[in-house]
Amino acid sequence: MFSRFALPCWLAVLSFATSVASSVTPETKNLFVDADLFEAIDDTAALLLACTLPNTNLLAVNINVNSTYSAYAASAIVNHYGYSSVPIGLPRPYTNITSPEPFGGEYASKVAAGWSGGSVPNGQVNKTLDPVELYRKTLAEAKNNSVTVVSIGFMGSLSGLLNTTSDKYSALDGYALVKAKVKELVVMGGGYSQEPAIDAEYNFAIQNAPHVINTWPDCVPMTFLGAEVGVEVLSGARFTVCGPPNDPVKSAWEYWGSYNTSEYSWDFLTMVYAGRGLGSWFEYGNENGYNFLFPNGTNVWVEDERRTSQHYLKLKASNETVSKEMDNLLLRGAWTHAQVD
């Protein structure tokens, strides 16, 4: 039962939730999310959206840092939003390390303890899978051309998948499995403004991004949201004020130090595109060409009329509109699963 103090915030988004539900495509997007959920807070909001966007189905979550707390927190979050059995992948060897991030408070261990549940309850790290194994198992079990992979962190596990050979899950090697099962790879990473990048964007500077991006099968679409788009949209403040009091993502933001404070929206913008497509928020910034990464992770967009399967995103709507509607999406998702006395 909702408290009388929480009702005004919830009622404020009811009309928006109705319009979203009536405007989305009936096609279900099957999402495989690859996230870090460690040093930044935007991954938590992205997981909320992965679980609650209309017409989406969360298949699996890979954590691409080796902190056990990140795996427990991911399991707790998706469990809270209705996905009690979604498997969680965690790199080996894992450790109980917590985030050293100086710009915000550590949140993963607190969420893990406060909302323990799902396929990997707090303290039961043995229930995680190796991330590459989880990719192969999930893709092998999926229908052809049905999985949208959403990379909002580092790309070591995707690189590992591409390097695999046949195994007990599939006779196909990594590239063939991707060609058969993946409908689109959606990536938060890189930069696509007119100014050439000097340094690699954070997600591309670590691990194996050049291998994944430069050798990804051209027959499988790949779409990028760059750093310059995420900094245009600040969102989350209204969600932290008006969200349910016993919500793991709202609480994570408070642990992080972002109560009533909006954050750059890199990961959750990426998730909205993965779940809804271009919609009214986005447009493609190119008609053709491809993304190329240098060994240090710096990227450049190469014009090539023969290549049409890769795109980078630009905002079509104003950043103010997207920011407001993003908070509405977060509130709608959180209140749908609220447990408030």
User: What is the strand arrangement across the widest sheet?
Assistant: 3-2-1-4-5-6-12-9
Q: Strand share of the residues?
A: 15-25%
Total count of helical runs of at least 4 residues: 15
Enumerate the spans where pLDDT stays under 50 for 5 or more consecutive residues: 1-8, 14-25
The radius of gyration computed from the alpha-carbon positions, rounded to a whole number of angstroms, is: 19 Å
Order of helices and strands: HHEHEHEHHEHHEHHEHEHHEHEEEEH
CATH superfamily: Ribonucleoside hydrolase-like
Distance between the termini: 5 Å
Query: Major beta sheet, specifics?
Result: 8 strands, mixed
| DSSP strand count | 12
CATH first level: which class?
Answer: Alpha Beta
Question: Notable features of this structure?
Answer:
341 residues, Inosine-uridine Nucleoside N-ribohydrolase, Chain A, two-stranded antiparallel sheet, 15 helices, 39% helix
